[in-house]
Design goal:
Blueprint: H1 2-5, E1 8-16, H2 25-30, E2 35-41, E3 44-51, E4 57-65, E5 72-78, H3 112-115, E6 126-132, E7 137-142, E8 144-145, H4 157-161, E9 164-170, E10 213-222, H5 225-245, H6 251-254, H7 259-263, E11 271-276, E12 280-288, H8 294-303, E13 311-314, E14 321-322, E15 334-338, H9 343-346, H10 363-374, H11 378-383, H12 390-398, H13 417-423, H14 425-432, E16 464-468, E17 475-479, H15 482-487, E18 492-496, E19 506-512, H16 515-521
Parallel strand pairs: 11-15
Antiparallel strand pairs: 1-4, 1-9, 2-3, 2-5, 5-6, 6-8, 7-9, 10-12, 10-13, 10-14, 11-12, 16-17, 17-19, 18-19
Length: 522
């Protein structure tokens, strides 16, 4: 008879990483019943014996189905029910034998006298999963919250805990192909719909792929009372979202999570940073486009509010950024960066533009942050790739404490051309790429090198090489006789020193791709 019906065997092995046991006073007063498990396959329901609340449950329940066909199996975990199912038949590992419903069990957080009188106003949340029985395999399936099921606890209870079911299917006749799904017993009852993230997989791997896309959100504000509170509200919203999806209540614990460790619990995290200066706040955040993306709806609702006049907020649902995340490698999922200087003042520091200066490595990040602070257009920020990279932010963090020493009165003597160059970078970038230019727009970023002090003792100071551009194609020089170089075919631009400098002389800076001509001229 066995050969004629060709059975298949499904073994439910164990459930791991269950949600936390009821321990708080509120949960204890709810008087939850023990954890029990329900399995539905081809219209037949089996109950696995109840167990006390714990992290891992060993089931070892075997279900036999005949005849051999492709079936859908639905598995449910009930860990917050008020009563146990009214059945006398359980399979798998048994509870305390014999199970007497009227007996009080220590450590189960239940009062059997109250369990038979449940409170109908409190719904009973549970999690579940479903999978195909064939082909034969040993695998795992994620246990997730049932869709549209009201819960007195967090909706992501099971998902945040990464609860999963280990199971094994054995098909003695695996050499035979399974029957098509349309030939399954038509009397099979519909199963409860299950929320599954993306495409269903028997072996659940929770990770972001190359196809994942992201939104970016920017908030810039001054540090007055009203504007600063608006920036703090956004930071608080992000922290509260992380407490929910990571199932943590402490903000200090949240700060220990990196992108890698947090996505092992939940993909729906917000990455980015919060820059705090003496006069400004800047927040740049990234959220998912694909599900799970509850963070998107929260951020969208916040960014659609009307901010104070001193607050600028940039976002566009049409702009989607490809994988990977720009700020996935920061030390925390959402990092706070505090600097003791004002960015709009620090950009004028002369030492920032000398290659020999220790703070010259901050040139790119300061230029990008300045452009974002002064920008009025989200499209301009995206088109010019003004987002500071993780390495640039790490350089800013490492030198943050030493920056005030460069903000002395002597160090502030710098030309007023710097902010003008930033504003005109978009308009001048096309002409700058056609031939060598003094300010050498490299990689769509403005370039500026300030003047070296002239040698007063010599009547005619020699030409002085300042350095090379970032791509190594252009050399930057200072000269004292620009008119002669103009006659030789050089393109030059004269920039005068401010009247406050000790020597009020016109100095010229030139650049040329042909290094041989430079050497010959000198």
């Amino acid at each position: 008879m066995i050969r004629q019906n060709k059975p298949i065997f499904i073994k439910l092995i164990k459930v791991e990483n269950m949600p936390s046991s009821p321990t708080s006073f509120t949960e204890l007063t709810n008087l939850y019943a023990p954890v029990y498990f329900k399995c539905i396959c081809n219209g037949e329901t089996n109950y696995i014996a109840p167990q006390m609340h714990q992290t891992n449950h060993s089931l070892n329940a075997v279900i036999i189905k005949m005849p051999r066909m492709q079936l859908d199996l639905t598995f449910e975990v009930h860990d917050r029910d008020k009563i146990l199912p009214e059945t006398q038949y359980y399979i798998g590992n048994s509870f305390i034998e014999p199970f007497v419903p009227v007996a009080k069990r220590k450590g189960l957080f239940l009062d059997t006298d109250e369990i038979i009188k449940p409170n109908p106003a409190i719904p009973n949340p549970y999690g579940g999963c479903n999978f195909k029985v064939l082909p034969e395999r040993r695998s795992r399936a994620p246990v997730l919250p049932i869709i549209n099921h009201k819960s007195p606890i967090q909706a992501g209870n099971f998902h945040a805990s990464l609860t999963d079911l280990s199971f094994m299917t054995y098909d003695p006749y695996s050499s035979l192909p399974p029957l098509p799904e349309d030939q399954i017993n038509l009397n099979q009852k519909p199963v409860t719909p299950i929320r599954t993230p993306g495409k269903k997989k028997d072996l659940f791997e929770q990770s972001e792929t190359n196809e994942t896309e992201y939104y970016r959100w920017i908030l810039v504000s001054k540090r007055d009372n009203q504007s600063e509170n608006f920036a703090k509200m956004l930071h608080c919203l992000i922290n509260e979202h992380h407490k929910l999806v990571l199932n943590e209540s402490s903000e200090s614990v949240i700060q220990t999570f990196t992108y890698t460790t947090s996505t092992k619990r939940n993909l729906d995290v917000i990455t980015g940073f919060h820059l705090i200066g003496p006069n400004e706040h800047m927040i740049i955040a990234e959220s998912r486009v694909q599900t799970p993306n509850q963070s998107f709806s929260k951020l969208l609702q916040f960014f659609q509010t009307r901010p104070p006049l001193s607050v600028k907020m940039f976002y566009n649902k049409a702009n989607k950024f490809p994988s990977p995340r720009e700020y996935a490698c920061l030390s925390t999922i959402f990092q706070t960066i505090e600097i003791p200087v004002n960015i709009l003042e620090f950009v004028k520091v002369e030492a920032l533009y000398f290659h020999s200066s220790v703070i010259h490595v901050l040139y790119d990040v300061v230029q990008k942050l300045t452009a974002i602070l002064q920008s009025q257009d989200f499209e301009y920020i995206n088109a010019n790739d003004l987002y500071p990279s993780v390495s640039q932010l790490n350089q800013l963090i490492s030198q943050a404490q030493s920056l005030p020493s460069f903000m002395t009165k002597k160090a502030k003597t710098v030309t007023n051309q710097v902010p003008k160059i930033i504003q005109k970078s978009s308009a001048r970038s096309q002409s700058a790429m056609t031939k060598p230019h003094l300010n050498a727009f490299l990689e769509n970023r403005p370039r500026f090198v300030s003047f070296a002090k002239p040698v007063i003792n010599n009547a005619r100071p020699p030409n002085k090489r300042i350095g090379v551009s970032h791509n190594g194609e252009e050399e930057l020089w200072l000269v004292d006789d620009p008119e002669t170089l103009k006659e030789e075919g050089w393109e030059i631009e004269i920039i005068k020193r401010p009247a406050s400098t000790r020597v009020n002389r016109a100095k010229t800076q030139i650049s040329r791709k042909n290094n041989k001509i430079l050497q010959k001229t000198i």
